[in-house]
Write a structure and sequence with these properties.
Helix content is about 50%, strand content about 15%. The strands form two sheets. The protein has a seven-stranded mixed sheet with strand order 1-9-8-2-5-3-4, with helices on both faces. It is of the alpha/beta class. Strand 6 and strand 7 form a beta hairpin.
Length: about 300
């Protein structure tokens, strides 16, 4: 069953204070915005026991920490990184500078990133909620010389969604509602756009396949694999890593390019490709795990149920 839609009263009750906070954040310098966001999200860390404990338990579940004390320390860093993301979303059009964005990854993936050196007309990106994925779309387009189409899930609060998406969409970056994903994605690829899907959160059984992530089973979105098999365009895992300092600098980090030769078993092909993408994203996340969104639902066996 889908989520119950919010009432108009709830939508506006959430939106008005968010809008006030948004307007104020845009009036102050970036470093002050980072500090203010860090304060509020820091308070949230202690007040929101559900997501705080989920963050800690997921880190322990994934085995990236040796004990709970270490998990708590890393969880606080994770929430701080999220506070920086929040400030950056509010200040996006004020602080974004493509000169501060760098690109790294295996030579083959970097070659495909750049439109001038690419072997293929375009490619598919399997992306994670990591660092600043909101800045990634525009930066990717500007640096690569390409246009992009991203599949997106509607926001729980449509008014807040409109505000955030006003910074994401542009002539370079087309947004595709999730329910139109495959059809519009194929059209975008045919037009030479890069097609992007966030693939690091729990997928419903009709939308995903089972993969292993940090040693445990999870359901992962199969759209990138289906698109890869349908079009032959390569699939590249990607994260957008925040660099040290508080000056809106990021690194687009590409994983190993996936170019899979299909067999007669489509179901198995989809699972293998999805696992390859999942494994690459895990490798990239492990390098600086505090920048990944650990509070989101992911594993099938976390505490024996989805939380």
């Amino acid at each position: 069953m889908g989520k119950k839609q919010k009432s108009k009263f709830t939508i506006w009750a959430e939106y008005i204070p968010f809008l006030i906070f948004y307007k104020f954040m845009r009036l102050i310098p970036l470093k002050a915005a980072y500090a203010l966001s860090s304060f509020f999200i820091g308070c949230g860390y202690y007040l929101d026991a559900r997501h705080r404990n989920r963050t800690i338990n997921h880190m322990l579940h994934a085995g990236i920490v040796k004990d709970r004390k270490e998990a708590v320390k890393l969880a606080k860093k994770c929430w701080h990184e999220f506070s920086m993301l929040l400030a950056e979303i509010f200040k996006m059009d004020q602080c974004y500078d493509k000169a501060k964005i760098t690109i790294s990854g295996p030579p083959e993936s970097v070659r495909e990133f750049n439109k001038e050196t690419a072997k293929f007309k375009t490619h598919i990106l399997g992306v994670a909620h990591y660092g600043n994925w909101e800045a990634a779309g525009h930066a990717y387009c500007e640096l690569s010389g390409r246009t992009m189409a991203s599949m997106m899930r509607p926001f729980d609060n449509p008014k807040i969604g409109e505000l955030i998406l006003s910074h994401r969409a542009s002539p370079l970056h087309q947004l595709i509602p999730k329910n139109l994903g495959i059809r519009q994605g194929l059209k975008a690829l045919n037009e030479g756009r890069v097609f992007t899907v966030l693939v690091d959160q729990h997928a419903a059984h009709n939308e995903g396949v089972e993969t292993i992530f940090f040693g445990h089973p999870c359901m992962t979105h199969k759209t990138p694999a289906l698109m890869h098999l349908k079009t032959g365009h390569p699939l590249i895992p990607e994260v957008t890593r925040r660099l040290p300092g508080k000056d809106f600098r990021f690194e687009i980090v590409l994983g190993n390019m996936i170019k899979y030769e299909p067999t007669d078993d489509k179901e198995r092909d989809v699972q293998v490709i999805t696992q390859m993408c999942t494994t690459e994203l895990e490798r990239l996340i492990r390098e600086q795990p505090e920048q990944w969104m650990w509070a989101a639902r992911r594993w099938l066996d976390a505490d024996g149920r989805h939380r």
